[in-house]
Amino acid sequence: MTPPAGSLLWAEQLRKAYGPTLALDGAEFSIHPGEVVAVMGPSGSGKSTLLHCLAGIVTPDAGTIMYGGRELSAMSDAERSALRRSEFGFVFQFGQLVPELTCVENVALPLRLNGSSRKEAERAALTWMERLEVDELRKKRPGEVSGGQGQRVAVARSLVTNPRVLFADEPTGALDSLNGERVMELLTDAARSTDAAVVLVTHEARVAAYSDREIVVRDGRSRDMERAV
Ligand SMILES: Nc1ncnc2c1ncn2[C@@H]1O[C@H](COP(=O)(O)OP(=O)(O)OP(=O)(O)O)[C@@H](O)[C@H]1O
Ligand SMILES: [Mg+2]
């Protein structure tokens, strides 16, 4: 099989075993630029494993993953990590901000690691913090902000490199529903405005409602729910 026309990231027949556990057993996936796809399914069904494979963090035992016309498994480790740094953004359940850095330093960090000057990186960081409505927290450390604010800082950090794909694994899992919805609104608006694709892993139908399409994973197999946009 070849990827459908216009798909940015595409996978088929993914298998991944952890000892006797088959985490992925023939999973498939496809996403277009600017599309928000929710990956749903029960705990232990393989959602995070699928996300980690698509992002080139975990290598599947079998199957094909194509990103922008290139096969992930054909790339060297260095090429894959360069891809993760420059083309992919990540948001996790517990923001995983660096506690010793201020919020603006956290958001600027991916640009600093890619070689930008402090001034340049922090200017871009502040633009994203304004969009996520957390610019007033620039001087605070992660320990001094609320859960919802911290997640919005984490979203700003994930977008500061202008990624083509944003991977979000339960980004609102630690938030109450009001904060969760605000994070989802801002995240999807920001991603759509930059035409980034979003791979959104979530348990919650309320969160999946922000997506264009849903994929359900069960026992390591995925099924496209073909929900109309
Ligand atoms: N690093 C690992 N080592 C061993 N087993 C693993 C590892 N990662 C995942 N698994 C197993 O693979 C299966 C799928 O796990 P995965 O984390 O992908 O599920 P999930 O759908 O993300 O679950 P949750 O909703 O609880 O986060 C589970 O049975 C899990 O125990
Ligand atoms: Mg998971």
Description:
- This protein has 229 residues and is α/β, with parallel strands linked by helices.
- It has a single domain, classed as Rossmann fold (3-Layer(aba) Sandwich).
- The chain has 7 helices and 10 strands.
- The chain has helices spanning 47-54, 77-87, 103-113, 118-131, 147-159, 177-193, 205-208, and strands at 9-18, 21-31, 36-40, 62-67, 70-71, 88-91, 165-169, 197-201, 213-218, 221-224.
- The strands form 2 sheets. The protein has a 6-stranded mixed beta sheet, with helices on both faces.
- Helix 6 (177-193) links the parallel strand 7 and strand 8.
- The longest helix is centred in the last third of the chain and has 17 residues, at 177-193.
- The radius of gyration is 17 Å and the shape is globular.
- The relative contact order is 0.20.
- The structure holds adenosine-5'-triphosphate and magnesium ion (MG).
- Magnesium ion binds at residues 47-48, 169.
- Residues 47-48, 169 line the site of magnesium ion (MG).
- GO terms for molecular function: ATP binding.
- InterPro entries: AAA+_ATPase, ABC_transporter-like_ATP-bd, ABC_transpr_LolD-like, MacB-like_ATP-bd, P-loop_NTPase.
- Keywords: ATP-binding, Nucleotide-binding, Transport.
- Pfam families: ABC_tran (PF00005).
- Residues 9-229 form the ABC transporter domain.
